[in-house]
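Protein: Type II secretion system F family protein
Species: Streptomyces atriruber
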Amino acid sequence: MTHRNHTTHRLRKLLQPHPPQPPRTPTWHRLITAARGRLGPEWWCLAAGLTVALLGASVVPLAVGAAGVPLAARARRARTARRDRERRGDAVIALCGELAGEVRAGRQPGEALQLTLRDPAETDIGPGTARSAVLAAARFGGDVPGALRTAAQEPGAEGLLGLAACWRVAVDRGAGLAAGLERLEDALRSERDQRADLRAQLAGARSTAVMLAALPLLGLLMGAALGADPLRVLLHTAPGLACLAAGGVLEGVGAWWALRIVRGAEER
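Structure follows.
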């Protein structure tokens, strides 16, 4: 009887429909995903250079693409640093507003600062060590203005210098901390809005510079469409190589100069 039950159970398992298996990801897709996670977008310069090198049967585009990788990586790091600086500035503005609200609610300054800095994701005013130093000073009665000045050395956190000054005045002279924090928040917010407006006004100039820098590529595409074979002329003849070198230098200097003008206007 036991053997019959065992046989029946095996037959039911065999006849039971199996759940559909998820489709297997192709190997090339897994390799591309892994490379994308490990390599930065600047490596597309090398890929573009390799493509043009294969089309033009020359190693010159490959060398140019390889040389463009560190430049693109530097630009990416600068863009990341600018975003971190802006995010840190927004965190300082939010910190001033929340701290003023806690003080208005009747909390002591040290307790209010501890409550405001309790969430590191919402108050990213700098590295964890700087934030911990400010928290420790507020919790144990240490030099809070000194800790704030140390944290203000991070790019984007310069508004903490104003917070340190407000804290020092409130402690030494008994002045209203909340009123000073609210004025500081308004000043920092106004400065941030002015920078955003200026960046929006300069967006057109930056787009024009990028468009002008891309015009030589458009000329190459038009020449190829007309059957002129510009890659052969540029990569396999002495005049073409000379024109390519001179044009590349002038293109790089022009793009650098235009972006320098825009960046200088943003920093004023």
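Remarks: Residues 41 and 77 are 11 Å apart (CA to CA).
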